[in-house]
């Protein structure tokens, strides 16, 4: 069952909206005769086969077959339902739609359950001094706790009671991973117990899942909601709903690892920060970033910056034609801790000093400046080559090759021919 939106409203939106204008808010379109073209956002391609027709008010991709009107475009782009797409476009046009008579769709039902549960956790936090003090010690202000709707998951019994008295549907709670059934005795219990709760929001601000942290150092330190009809971890960037407008404005994003990093940076007014939630960035996350920015500042923990998972993630950013700069923080300090100890200005200075990724790799490879054997140099250059293969824009690649040649005293020509054979 979908929400009810009258045909009259749909027609009047189609009449008023211009598909060229709307799509060009998401991807750059170039004129091609009577139509406009672009690289298709829905499949990987080198030459544009994505066409937009202003006359017919439709788009069509000759590569992957995607096509339709503005609603279809938005549904595919944002991975949302038809009524949601209608609402977004209506908003863009300044046409408020009354949703009083709406019948809620299935996804909407999950969002509503999550919203009620998040509110419950949030209220529980306000009753729990120990949990509050933990957050205050981390430097979170009450307004920040409200903004991110941080909460406290009580014991199983209290949560199950809340679900019962509010008639929350059991099956849905299970699908969302909020309630589990014990294999031993078949009894139900709540998955999140006595943990700080971080709601995870979709890009439009709906609560799709939860992350949860223990108060002490017991393990596992963090647990997350499992995948559900409204949550896929690899397709989410934590904090995006608050960061997206600043990201679009500045053309830059600061990518961090964890909840507390994002929350701390936003509290300091560094509003273009999002977290990958773990170091293994996915291709979907890289594409999401590319929708808003061209430049990504990576502020991972020094220890994980060198890990294979991080390097793979950076390769994905480069493949998506994002410029990557590395913010180097002191070993063992994450961005949250750094800002808490040294302040916002110190962090922004670090951001200013951030090295372009290739420069960073060269610096790390050269280490403390001792001389390198030819063998070692070739090994380093080879590992850099596999990263360079991901860089598409010609001028950035040329620039990187020049830097590497200079750094290791190779002639640019011989390096280039080695690279072409790589
Ligand atoms: Zn396509």
UniProtKB/TrEMBL annotation:
CDD domains: TOPRIM_DnaG_primases (cd03364)
Enzyme class: transferase
GO molecular function term, any single one: DNA-directed RNA polymerase activity
BP GO annotations: DNA replication, synthesis of primer
GO CC entries: cytoplasm; DNA-directed RNA polymerase complex; primosome complex
Keyword match Nucleotide-binding: no
CHC2-type ZnF: 40-64
Cofactor note: Binds 1 zinc ion per monomer.
Sequence ranges assigned to domain Toprim in this UniProt record: 251-334
Record-given protein name: DNA primase
């Amino acid at each position: 069952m979908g929400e009810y939106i009258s045909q009259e409203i749909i027609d009047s939106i189609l009449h008023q909206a211009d598909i060229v204008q709307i799509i060009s808010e998401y991807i750059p379109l170039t004129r091609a005769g009577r139509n406009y073209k672009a690289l298709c956002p829905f499949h990987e391609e080198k030459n544009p086969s994505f066409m937009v027709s202003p006359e017919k008010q439709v788009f069509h991709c000759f590569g992957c077959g995607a096509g339709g009107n503005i609603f279809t475009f938005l549904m595919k782009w944002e991975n949302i339902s038809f009524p949601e797409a209608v609402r977004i476009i209506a908003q863009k046009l300044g046409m408020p739609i009354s949703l009083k008579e709406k019948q809620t769709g299935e996804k909407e039902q999950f969002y509503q359950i999550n919203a009620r549960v998040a509110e419950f956790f949030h209220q529980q936090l306000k009753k729990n001094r120990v949990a509050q003090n933990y957050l205050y010690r981390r430097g979170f202000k009450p307004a920040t706790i409200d903004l991110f709707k941080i909460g406290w998951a009580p014991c199983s019994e209290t949560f199950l009671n809340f679900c019962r008295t509010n008639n929350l549907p059991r099956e849905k709670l299970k699908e969302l991973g909020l309630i589990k059934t014990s294999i031993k005795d078949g009894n139900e219990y709540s998955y999140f117990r006595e943990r700080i709760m971080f709601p995870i929001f979709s890009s439009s601000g709906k609560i799709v899942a939860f992350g949860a942290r223990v108060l002490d150092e017991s393990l596992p330190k963090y647990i997350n909601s499992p995948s559900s009809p409204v949550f896929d971890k690899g397709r989410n960037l934590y904090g995006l709903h608050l960061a997206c407008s600043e990201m679009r404005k500045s053309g830059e994003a600061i990518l961090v690892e964890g909840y507390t990093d994002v929350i701390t940076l936003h509290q300091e007014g560094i509003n273009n920060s999002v977290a990958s939630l773990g170091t293994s960035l996915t291709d979907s996350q890289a594409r999401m970033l590319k929708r808003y920015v061209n430049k990504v500042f990576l502020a991972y923990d020094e220890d994980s910056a060198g890990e294979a998972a991080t390097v793979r993630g950076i390769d994905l950013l480069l493949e998506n034609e994002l410029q990557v700069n590395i913010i180097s923080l002191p070993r063992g300090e994450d961005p949250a801790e750094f800002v808490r100890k040294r302040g916002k200005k110190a962090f922004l200075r670090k951001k200013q000093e951030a090295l372009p990724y290739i420069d960073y790799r060269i610096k790390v490879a050269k280490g403390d400046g001792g001389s390198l054997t030819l063998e070692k140099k070739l090994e380093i250059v080879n590992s850099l080559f596999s990263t360079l293969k991901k860089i598409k824009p010609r001028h950035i690649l040329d620039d990187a090759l020049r830097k590497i040649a200079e750094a290791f005293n190779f002639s640019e020509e011989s390096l280039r021919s080695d690279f072409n054979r790589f």
